[in-house]
Amino acid sequence: MVSESRMESRQAFHEKMQVDPLPGFVSSRKQEGAMKIRKQVLYAGMAAFMLGIFTCVVPFTLRAEDAPRMDKDELKALLDNPAVIILDVRTSTDWKQSDQKIKGAIRPDTGDVDTWEKVYPKDKTLVLYCS
Length: 131
What we know:
By secondary structure, the protein is mainly α. It is 46% helix and 8% strand.
């Protein structure tokens, strides 16, 4: 059996070292400190991720004014080319009101652009027509 003075000195040591006298348990002070560090690391990671998004992805997004353009003669030259797919992406209203349609053009669902990569082969050139 451990003497009472030895128990008191052991308790004093654990309090001084901020260690729980029971092995395998962490004191509440240590838990609070660990949680604070975890939150700081999480926030720093989130900030780094967002910074990465804005510095890596945003500059590479294609704006409408940056898209290559062609005139009707260049398009006519591509009409019979099997390596080219022409997508008529005009609004339904514009397409219905127009008396001019492009021969062989496909009218894809413009609300479902995310699926286009699965529908159209990557080895083809896509030409998007809009007015």
